[in-house]
Amino acid sequence: MRNASKLMTVGVLTTLLTGGVVMPAAAHDPASATVDALERVAPDALDGNVQAPTDGVDDIPFHAELAEGDVSLPTAVGAPVTIDTPEGGIKIELPFATNQATAQGIAPGVVAYDNANGTTTVSSVKQAGALQFTTVIETSAAPTEFSYDIAVPEGGSILEGTGGYFILDSDGEPVATIAAPWALDANGASVPTRYEFAGTTLTQVVEHASTKVVYPVVADPKFEWFNLLPTVKLTRSETSSARTATGLATVCGWAARTTGYLGGAVCGLNAGSIIVNANRAYGAGKCLRLLIGPGVVGGVPYKDGYCR
After folding, report:
1. What are the C-alpha distances in Å from 181 to residues 70, 178, 204?
2. Sheet holding 287-293, edge to edge
3. How does 66-82 read in b/e, with b if 16+ C-beta sit within 10 Å?
4. Fewer CB within a 10 Å sphere, N or C end of the chain?
5. Are 132 and 112 in contact, with CB atoms under 8 Å apart?
6. Which pTM does this prediction carry?
């Protein structure tokens, strides 16, 4: 337990939905309307970005070399976004990639992709080491499902955690975290949203069209890599303790002494998931390792010299 290791989380994905026409189309060109929507609903999408020139297609695709990973944004229709990290490479195909008509720089470090269906996907590269995607939905008739095809490192996998997902390499080490989704309308009211996952395709469903909302609506699945976050290995006895609520409280106390972040993240809302995973690991003759990321907690079984 005391040998907590550090997890580098890779952040890459945020989706913004503005499902309605807030301003008359004639008053703004598409790029200006997109920027206005982001400033109103999700201003963080335009903050803290890499100051790469993106004024026009001649400046993109562009490649950003960040402290813990390099990001490349495409201009070719259907081409994926790529992220290279020390733990492995990831490719992400954007929603409606084969529909995309144009790619346009709308601000330094920010590229917008016209999906030719009443939506625009916006990519912004953060100086702190993250890639954020936002999708602007122009009308309530626009799609409610946004799918991201994810190519994981060779031999890797995607693990479901509490509320979100982890992308793992071939050794089961986390490469990226996908935080739990959320969606808010222009008044800050929650909009129903959830993930659906099949194979390596992550779909965020946002029920904006069937809900009374004030547009624009912002929905956010997010992958991040800019922080060092902990993973914690439990021994067999600690794994056994984590199988019950009483024992888990003790485990959380041990974890809190190792790292304050873990102390807050493991307990409370994540207790049920941890208990289930601890029982699975113990029943398989293995131990539990807790994975902690922004907005997501998971557990994977492991077996090595520490698991005794």
Report:
1. 25, 9, 8
2. 5-8, 228-233, 287-293, 296-302
3. bebbebbbbbeeebbbb
4. C
5. no
6. 0.74
